[in-house]
């Protein structure tokens, strides 16, 4: 029996609540109909089979019984996470801690329906999940390749390694950004960057095309690597949730709001040229953090390393995406002072404007749960 998520072997775990399979690699669980009926909130289960029965939402994971694509059931506004289900085999797959979230709905009613033995079994399963989760958090980012961005000071999405999503819009945009930025790097005296960047004193030159070209250009390698990394790490989740059309609309709207806010705070007659995809990517980051607030983000704090000589403190911090986003917003707000004083060339206002666009887009689409067939 293979895991639909990481393809590793799963262990059969019989219980008084029905059979389920546990993946020791990703902590995912596969439940059959009997266990689902007894462990999952009835309203959630009805919605699960209703959507799975339509068969029009094929996901990226295969059923380990029939090998067909499982139906991707989008999350709901009540906090129910996105789930994968096979209507033919009547099984559903839960990522780490998702089962606990669903099983905890209407706990009082569930307690009235279950025997004391079954309640103890549920509690045991939940304790196992919490212990497994704690041990996983202490193990670092997991995939060896993720240590590279972590040490570089970039955030890492815990549990995202090795999970390829068919988010072609994200990958195509990354390729286009890299290509245009390389052209800018190779141009003599940065002629392309200066010519096609968004100029504060003439934002509508060339018919306003610089609103687009400035998004695709970057000032140096670190600028490019940072933006492309954030795009690939968080953009694919958002594209799966919204579908590529709404995803693209979000990026465009966030980038435009970021550009407009930057122009509004720029000094009159400023000849500064702005470039970079940060505004649009900030919109993706905002939407991701609000749509998936419990997703775990790992960051490496270099300044905590010296303290380890004196106190037992971890330099690698794990936090929910919503907390990480709030932290990032605070950093951007502090950076606006240096931008206004002209002591920094980072477009903090573009970041904040893009984030505002992401929040607005989430308020329209994400808070209700995505209706897109590619939602995740």
Question: What keyword list fits this structure?
Answer:
14 helices; Rhomboid-like fold; single chain; three-stranded antiparallel sheet; disordered C terminus; 12% strand; 376 residues; 12 strands; seven-stranded antiparallel sheet; alpha+beta
Task: Write up what this structure looks like.
By secondary structure, this protein is an alpha+beta fold. The chain has 2 domains: about 10-140, no CATH class; about 145-370, Up-down Bundle (Rhomboid-like fold), CATH 1.20.1540.10. It is about 50% helix and about 10% strand. It contains 14 helices and 12 strands. It has a 7-stranded antiparallel sheet with strand order 1-2-3-7-6-5-4. Strands 8-11-12 form a 3-stranded antiparallel sheet. A two-stranded antiparallel sheet has the order 9-10. Helix 7 (about 170-185) packs antiparallel against helix 10, helix 11 (about 245-265) packs antiparallel against helix 14 (about 350-365) and helix 12 (about 280-290) packs across helix 14. About 40% of the residues are buried. The model is unreliable at about 105-115 and about 370-375 (pLDDT under 50).
What's this, in brief?
This protein has 376 residues and is α+β, with helices and mostly antiparallel strands.
